Every structure is written in structure tokens, then in C-alpha cells.
Amino acid sequence: MIPFVDLARQQERIGEALNDAISRVLAHGQYIMGPEVGEFESRLAEYCDVKHCVTCANGTDALLLAIKALELAPGSMVVVPAMTFVATAEAVTNAGMVPFFCDVNAETHIMEPDDLEAAFAAAARQDLKVSAVIPVDLFGLPADYTALVSLADEHGASVIADAAQSMGGGRAGRQVGALAPLTTTSFFPAKPLGCYGDGGAVLTEDEELASRIASMRMHGKGIDKYHSQCVGMNSRLDTLQAAILIEKLKILDEERAERERVAEFYHDGLGSHLGIQTSGVDVKHAWAQFTIRAPNRDSIRARLADAGIPTQVYYPQPLHAQEAYKHFPRVDELPVSERLSAESMSLPFHPYLEKDTQRQIIDVTLGRRDRISA
Ligand SMILES: *Cc1c(COP(=O)(O)O)cnc(C)c1O
Fold first, then answer.
1. Cα Rg of the chain (Å, integer)
2. Do 248 and 14 form a contact (C-beta atoms < 8 A)?
3. Which of 218, 240, 305, 372 has the fewest CB atoms within 10 Å distance of its CB?
4. CA dihedral of 283, 286, 288, 294, whole degrees rounded to 10
């Protein structure tokens, strides 16, 4: 059976460094907010070329902290693409705001400026004022933040980048983390920069936002944790996870290059037969996933499953169709999100995927063979 994501190969590669890093934490015993947490924050901020990095317990909390830090009026509208992981809209709702769903682009699968423009227009028709926008870098493709931020600015709305899937990517020579006023990310194991459990971070140039978030993640800590300056939460990155992330960050660029090689090979084999997520010019895709589109998606999936090749559908239902989110406001029609839910699927993908395995996956995908050799 081919694994969908293979973390064992990475572990073989940096296993010794990881063991040493973990042993150092066990030796000093500062499991909460130990020195590795601050060290990792400095290193990730430097890597992204952004002033502040505040880590937290997971990518969903990173979104929640970022939204709360904006101090919007309760019930404010926040534009979210319907085609994303539920956490994006969940964080908006848990922060006391209201998600307003917009559609995405059929080729890039992400929110493009015209999708956002349509959302502002639809909100205005419904007499709703949009206060913030959360574009999502789906599958690792960084959104066009230059255009999205200037459009949001015109409407007086803030922008938070949900970069849970795109760490290591970039656009126009800048890294993800430095593309939007606030960026959130996740270190869930299967993300491009993953730890061995849960983890997340918020990145920003803004000193005031960063210190508000740093306080909120520790119960609204003032001069110490027994003085609260705001209502916070408990959302810290474990020292052990920070120690692991320091080692993984060192190979992120190399792994991204390997991911690109794997993506190009899939693209060469499949691109003339199937729809493939396209990226724009001057974009550095982080390649969290390799995603294709086909009207007969379900039969292709079944054929791959029969051959022992796992696939995933991200996401089988757009958010505006979900039981928990269907009553929230949105643009009138979301045909692209609906079609992508029905037609897209992601293939096995990781930096260590070999060409021979990929060749077999491509052949089964295209129906040229129905089994793989051992
Ligand atoms: C994974 C993910 C999150 C949430 O991250 P967690 O660390 O699992 O909480 C949020 N948004 C998107 C787009 C994601 O893919």
C-alpha cells in the first residue's frame, strides 16, 4: 500500500537531530514555554522575513487569536471562501464574528480578487458591512495578497492569511508570512511544516497585534500570568514540538524543492488529460497537496483505491452546504466551490515520492493499468 503522506522517510533523514533535540528538552525539563519556543519563533520570523512570530497550540487557535486581536465589533462579517477546511469558518464563529462565504476560482481553487469583489458587492446588497477577509492558501498556493489587501483596504476591511497549508511558499519574491498584515499557520503533522502533534503560529509586522496575541495565548497575561490584561485562552506551542520544528525548518526549503519536482512529474503525466490546480506568475507554491479535477472523479478514485492507492477529497462539501454553516450569509451562488467538491481529489504526495511509484499512480489514474507492482 502506498502511503498518502510518508513521514517515515523524513524521520529517517533527520532522525538523529530530532532525537538530540528531544533529549535536550527532556534534560532541561521546561516543557511549557521552554527556550526552544522562543528560538523557533525567532527562526521562523527570520525565515519569513517578518518581525514577529507568536506560536500557539494549533492552526485553528492561530486563526482565533488573529481574529480576536483585530478587536472587531461582535457580529462583524468576515469573508471566508466556501472551499476551505472548516477551521477557517469555525474560528470566525468562535471569535463571535459571522462568516460570509465567497466562491473560489475554478483553476486555482482559491479566492481571487474577483471572488472578493463579488463578496463585497453581495454583502452590500444584503446591507452587511464586511470587517475582515480570510483568504486561504489552499493546497499550498499563496493567494494574491497584494491585490486582495488593496481591495480590502478600499472597503476598510482587515486581511488575515490562512496559511495553514502554505508555509515555505511565497509570491513576488516574498515568503508566506510576510504577504498579509496577519498570517496564521498550522504545524499539524501533514502540513508542509509539521511537528509531531498540534502546533500553530501567527506572523505579523505589527508590534501591537503581536503583543496582544502573545498575551492572549497565555490567559491574557499582563506583567505575569497572575495579572490579566484581557480575556485570553490557554494556547501554547509545547516546547517539545518547538524543538522538533527547529530541526524541520532547516530542511523546509529542500523539501519544498522536492515537492515541486514531484508536482512537476505528476503535471507532465496528467496535465494534458485532467484539470490541475494552476498557480499564477511569480508564485512559489508550497505544494501541500497535488490536486486534480475530473467529472468522473469518483470512478477514478475507486480505480485507485482498488489498486491500493489512497486519495483524499478536500473537501467533499463546501462550507455553505454544511449543516453547521448553511445558515450563514454568502454570495448568492457558489458554483465553483460546489463543482470542486464534486470533481476534485488529491493524489498521494510528499517530498520523498519516487518517480516509479508516481508513474504507476499516473497510469492507474488514467486507466492505463489497474494494479501496481510491489
Ligand atoms: C489544517 C488547517 C487549519 C487548522 O489547523 P490545525 O492546526 O489543524 O488546527 C486551518 N485552516 C486550514 C486551511 C487548514 O488546512
1. 21
2. yes
3. 305
4. 20
Q: Please work out whether the CB of residue 104 comes within 6 Å of at least one atom of ligand 1.
A: no
The pLDDT tens digits of the residues spanning 41-88 come to: 999 999 999 999 999 999 999 999 999 999 999 999 999 999 999 999
Whether ligand 1 lies within 6 angstroms of the CB of 137 is answered as no
185 lines ligand 1 (CB under 6 A): no
Each residue's pLDDT tens digit, 175-190: 999 999 999 999 999 9
pLDDT tens track for 206-243: 999 999 999 999 999 998 878 999 999 999 999 999 99
pLDDT band at 374 (very low <50, low <70, confident <90, very high): low
Q: What is the pTM of this model?
A: 0.97
Q: Please give the Cα distance from 85 to 314 (Å, whole number).
A: 8
Helix axes 239-250, 35-48, angle to 10 degrees: 30
Going by DSSP bridges, is the β-strand pair 130-133/158-162 parallel, antiparallel, or unpaired? parallel
How far apart are the CA of 170 and the centre of ligand 1, in A?
18
> Quick check: 23 and 249 in contact, CB under 8 A?
no
**3-state class of 52 per DSSP?**
strand
Distance 227 CA to ligand 1 centre (A): 31
Residue 362: partners with Cβ closer than 8 Å, 6 or more residues away: 266, 269, 270
Whether the Cβ atoms of residue 109 and residue 344 lie closer than 8 Å to each other? yes
Give the pLDDT confidence score for residue 260 in this predicted structure. Answer: 97
